[in-house]
Amino acid sequence: MARQIDEDITDVGSTDVSRETPADVSRETGQSVSQTPAEVTQGAGLVLRPDSTEEDTPIGAAAARATRVQHPGGESLPRPDHCRIITVANQKGGVGKTTSTVNLAAALALHNITVLVVDLDPQGNASTALGVPHHSGTPSIYEVLLGEMPLRAAIQTSTHSENLLCVPATIDLAGAEIELVSLVAREGRLKRALDAKVLEELGVDFVLIDCPPSLGLLTVNALVAAPEVLIPIQCEYYALEGLGQLLSNIELVQAHLNPELHVSTILLTMYDGRTRLADQVVEEVRNHFGDVVLQTMIPRSVKVSEAPGYGQTVLSYDPGSRGAMSYLDAGREFGARGDITLNPSVSVPDEVPASPSSSSQERSREGFANDQGERR
Known about the structure:
By secondary structure, the protein is an alpha/beta fold. The protein is 40% helix and 12% strand. The protein contains 16 helices and nine strands. Strand 8 (228-234), helix 11 and strand 9 form a beta-alpha-beta unit. Helix 3 (97-110) packs across helix 15.
C-alpha cells in the first residue's frame, strides 16, 4: 500500500511539472535551473516579467539623468553676439541668489559657454560653491574695486569646469562700502573693472554678478555695471513684499547712472508643488511680469542645500537630482532665449496672495512623492 501511494505522488508531481513548467526544473524546489533575465524567483515559483531596461529602477533612472547632465552629448548653446553682463539681485535674503548664480553658471558651462562669476557678497558663498579659495589675502574683487589690482589678476578657474571662471570675495569686502564712500565715482568702480576688451580676450560669454542681500553700495555697483538684472523670487508669502523697493532702486539707477539697466529675467525658486500657496505666488508673478519669467521653476530640494557644504554646485554634487535637472533646464532656457526687457509700465502687485492656513497644508500626490524620493 505504501509503495502504491509513493508511485501515485510521483506520477502527479511529474505530470504537474511537464504541464506548467519547462523541462529543466529542480525536483526539490520546483524552480527553473536556468532562468532567463526576464524570470525572477519569488517564493517557491517563478514570476515572469517583461524585459526591462536599467532606467526602470529609481537608481537606474537617476544614473541615466546624471549621465545626461554631465555628458550632454556635445550639445551647445549659441554664443551671444556680445558678452552679456547680468546682475543677480534681491535685497531679501534666502531667496536663492547665490545658489541660482552658481548653478546657472555651471549649467551654461556644461553647454560650452564661458561664464565669469563675480562674487560681490562678503560672505563668499559663491566662491565656496565653485571650489575657489577665498581666504584673507587671496586676490579678490575687493582689490579690484579699490583699483589695487586689475580684473585679470583676480580671476580663478573653478575646479568643476574650465569654462567656469570666478572672481572670489574675501572677508575684506565687508569694509569695502565704507572705503568706497570717499572715492571718486564710487558707483562705477565695478563697471570700469569689467573692461570689454579684457572680457573679449578671455573669451567670456556671460558675466554673472552675485550681490549681497542688501541695497548698499556694492549692489549699486553691480547695477551700474550690468545692463541686465536677474531677480530670483522665492515661491512663498513674503516673496513680493520687498520686490517693489528693489524695482524702485533699479529705476533710480536707470534714471541717473545706467540708462540701459532693465530686468531681463525672473527665476522662481524654492517651489513646493504640495502647497496651493506656491501656485498662487507663481500665478501672481507670471501675470504681472509676463515673458521675463522663466518657464522653468526650481523646486525645493535637499540636494541643492547640501551641495555648497561640499564645495560644489548641485550639478556636480548630484547631477541626477530634481534640483540639478531644473537648474540645467533653467540655464538652457536662460542662455537660448536671449535678452528680454521688462515692460516699464508693469508694476508690482499691491497685494500678495493671502496666506491660507489650511491650503498650505494641502499636498498634491506628485509633489509629496517627489519630495519623499528626494529625501531618500
